[in-house]
């Protein structure tokens, strides 16, 4: 059974495009969180932006992207600052400081939503967590031929356009500041002595993660954002020992997870004969987890099996005497 | 565009920035505190031009902090630091830094050559890629520490001594006039110790000034020309022959009578 072209273009294509762009952007910036050992910052930022989103929504009174984006960025900046304050004044390790700040801010956001919905405003916490991938529609295309018409492309859903813009921004910034991101991540002290503002780059990474999380959460939800910030870069790290290769691979793995996860959600129930639909964002997160598991098992140098094989080769080498045989 | 926050036109060449007579490093009244506890107290020091200088003192004496405060990596409560007569922010290109080996994550996905090339970033500046010429300079620096064969190796697969040599090569690639090194001899094998010493002597011969935090009292007099005895305050400073005395060392190490450095070797042998 082949779903017809128009249905695919109007329903699946925009959702798939949004998922692919969200995953690619998250994976790209996620590399610098994972390498800075700040994976928790992904959780922190994607939760802490909630009060900013609600605030932006309440102030502007619309679901336009810009006010919510500005509110969320302000909340992310506030979260970054609060984490530093709590860490220094409370003398906590940064993971604990992040844990305190993001839960409190997320709770504040939930309270704000409850208050707002009491006033008859349409916002709910569920769509923040799980996203609304299924509701992204692109009504313009009527078939393959209509894709030649630029007006059809101009009518792409707002979420897709926002995600495309944020992904382009991430690519541009990582490309422009690649060298500086590399050195401030690896050795911030040396970077500072060279005159590169390492602290500024730290906040820059946090803000870029925030911008990506904001653009992505509406479409795919904050849970997928967190998974995509960590899983593809972590998997890519196990597959290569080169930073540039890791970054490119992580983006490719993010896209792969989006395609596999969305495919499983959209066509899996049909193939399995199950009537329940699957949540696409959830399936993408599952796919990214599976990819990471595969990398852990089969990674060439760092994978569990690879390491075993290396030990085996060593033992088989001529002249090797097993330690247990050396004991008197 | 350099990482100095100035326009390229106002940039002065390193040679012009080190007029004869200005000490490579001059510290006046430097006080640093962590959580209100003073770590360095009113430190005054002028490093002699050229030569190898050891910073010696017990654990917690503020040796690493002194280097970090000079480099602007930790905030100071009071005092000034000048490099060749000007604040450090204006002399970044004259400075090389070798941090403690434990200060970075050696699992990071870069090769030895990548790390050494980072020493060139100050010369490359914003928005420019690492060119072939810079990579060659980095490779040359690796050659000088006997690590050229490991250029493509991921840094986590190097031994501790090899990692230390990579850090040293990175400092060489900086082509600085004044080097700060935080325990370059700590926990290294004999081959690395020789390599590090050779690099220090080459730098000395080329007229550079090297300030090293150093732990091993036995080797201070052999490896270094000058010493700065530090225990929160400056206890003594000057040529090693004058300051590495039992009296001054015991004052540095907290009042206990200390055997002369020559006798330390015998003690160390007994202990091990």
Plain-language structure description:
The complex is a heterodimer of chains A (328) and B (272). Chain A is mainly alpha-helical and 328 residues long. Chain A has a domain at 7-221: ABC transporter involved in vitamin B12 uptake, BtuC. Helix content of chain A is 78%, strand content 0%. Chain A is globular. Chain A starts with a helix and ends with a helix. Chain B is α/β, with parallel strands linked by helices and 272 residues long. Chain B has one domain (22-271): Rossmann fold (3-Layer(aba) Sandwich). Chain B contains ten helices and ten strands. In chain B, helix 4 (132-144) packs across helix 5 (160-173) and helix 7 crosses helix 10. The longest helix of chain B has 16 residues, at 190-205. Chain B is globular. Chain B starts with 24 loop residues before the first strand and ends with a helix. The interface between A and B is medium-sized, with 25 and 33 residues.
Core attributes:
heterodimer, A: 328 residues, mainly alpha, ABC transporter involved in vitamin B12 uptake, BtuC, 15 helices, B: alpha/beta, 6-stranded mixed β-sheet, 4-stranded antiparallel β-sheet, 10 strands, 33% helix, 22% strand
Task: Describe how the helices and strands are arranged.
The complex is a heterodimer of chains A (328) and B (272).
Chain A: H1 5-35, H2 39-48, H3 50-60, H4 65-90, H5 94-118, H6 125-130, H7 150-154, H8 158-176, H9 178-186, H10 188-193, H11 198-239, H12 243-272, H13 280-298, H14 304-316, H15 323-326
Chain B: E1 25-34, E2 37-46, E3 51-56, H1 63-70, E4 78-83, E5 86-87, E6 95-98, H2 112-118, H3 121-124, H4 132-144, H5 160-173, E7 178-182, H6 190-205, E8 209-213, H7 217-223, E9 226-231, E10 233-239, H8 240-243, H9 246-252, H10 261-271
Parallel strand pairs in B: 3-8, 3-9, 6-7, 7-8
Antiparallel strand pairs in B: 1-2, 1-4, 4-5, 9-10
Helix pairs in contact in B: 2-4, 2-5, 4-5, 5-6, 7-10
Organism (chain A): Azospirillum brasilense
Transmembrane segments (chain A): 15-34, 41-60, 66-83, 95-113, 160-178, 190-214, 220-240, 247-272, 278-299
Keywords (chain A): Cell membrane, Membrane, Transmembrane, Transmembrane helix, Transport
């Amino acid at each position: 059974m082949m779903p017809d072209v128009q249905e695919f273009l109007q329903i699946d294509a925009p959702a798939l495009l949004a998922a692919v762009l969200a995953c690619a952007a998250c994976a790209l910036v996620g590399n610098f969180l994972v390498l800075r050992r700040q994976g928790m910052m992904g959780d922190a930022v994607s939760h802490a932006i909630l009060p900013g989103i609600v605030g932006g929504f309440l102030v502007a009174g619309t679901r336009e992207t810009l006010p919510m984006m500005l509110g969320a960025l302000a909340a992310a900046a506030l979260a970054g600052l609060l984490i530093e304050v709590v860490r220094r004044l409370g003398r906590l390790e940064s993971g604990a400081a992040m844990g305190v700040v993001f839960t409190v801010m997320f709770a504040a956001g939930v309270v704000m939503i409850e208050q707002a919905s009491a006033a008859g405003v349409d916002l709910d916490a569920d769509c923040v967590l799980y996203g609304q991938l299924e509701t992204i529609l692109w009504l313009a295309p009527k078939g393959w031929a209509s894709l030649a018409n630029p007006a059809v492309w101009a009518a792409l859903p707002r979420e897709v356009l926002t995600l495309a813009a944020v992904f382009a921004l991430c690519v541009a910034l990582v490309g422009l500041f690649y060298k500086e991101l590399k050195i401030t991540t690896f050795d911030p002290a040396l970077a500072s002595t060279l005159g590169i503002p390492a602290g500024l780059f730290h906040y820059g990474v946090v803000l870029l993660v925030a911008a990506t999380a904001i653009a992505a959460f509406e479409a795919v939800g904050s849970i997928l954002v967190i998974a995509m910030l960590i899983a593809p870069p972590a998997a890519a790290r196990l597959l290569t020992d080169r930073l540039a290769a890791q970054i490119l691979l992580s983006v490719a793995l993010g896209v792969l997870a989006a395609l596999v996860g969305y495919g499983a959600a959209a066509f899996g129930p049909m193939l399995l004969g199950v009537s329940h639909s699957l949540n696409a964002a959830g399936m993408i997160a599952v796919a990214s987890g599976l990819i990471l598991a595969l990398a852990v098992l089969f990674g060439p140098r760092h994978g569990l099996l690879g390491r075993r094989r290396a030990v085996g080769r060593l033992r088989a080498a001529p002249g090797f005497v097993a330690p247990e045989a050396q004991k008197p | 565009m350099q990482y100095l926050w100035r326009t390229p036109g106002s940039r002065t060449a390193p040679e012009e920035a080190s007029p004869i007579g200005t000490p490579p490093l001059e510290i006046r009244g430097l006080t640093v505190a962590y959580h209100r506890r003073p770590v360095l107290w009113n430190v005054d020091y002028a490093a002699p031009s050229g030569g190898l200088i050891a910073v010696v003192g017990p654990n917690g004496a503020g040796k690493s902090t002194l280097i970090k405060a000079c480099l602007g990596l930790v905030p100071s409560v009071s005092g000034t630091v000048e490099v060749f007569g000007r604040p450090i922010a204006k002399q970044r290109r004259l400075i090389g830094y070798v941090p403690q080996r434990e200060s970075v994550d050696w699992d990071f996905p870069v090769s030895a050559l990548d790390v050494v090339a980072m020493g060139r970033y100050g010369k490359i500046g914003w928005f420019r890629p690492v060119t072939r010429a810079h990579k060659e300079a980095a490779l040359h620096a690796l050659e000088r520490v006997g690590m050229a064969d490991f250029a493509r190796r991921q840094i986590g697969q190097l031994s501790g001594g090899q990692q230390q040599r990579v850090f040293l090569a990175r400092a060489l690639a900086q082509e600085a006039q004044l080097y700060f090194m935080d325990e370059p001899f700590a926990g290294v094998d004999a081959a690395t110790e020789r390599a590090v010493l050779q690099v220090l002597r080459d730098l000395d011969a080329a007229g550079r000034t090297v300030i090293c935090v150093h732990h091993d009292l036995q080797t201070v007099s052999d490896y270094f020309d000058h010493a700065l005895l530090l225990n929160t305050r400056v206890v003594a400073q000057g040529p090693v022959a004058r300051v590495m005395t039992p009296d001054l060392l015991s004052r540095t190490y907290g009042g206990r009578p200390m055997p002369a450095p020559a006798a330390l070797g015998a003690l160390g042998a007994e202990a091990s």
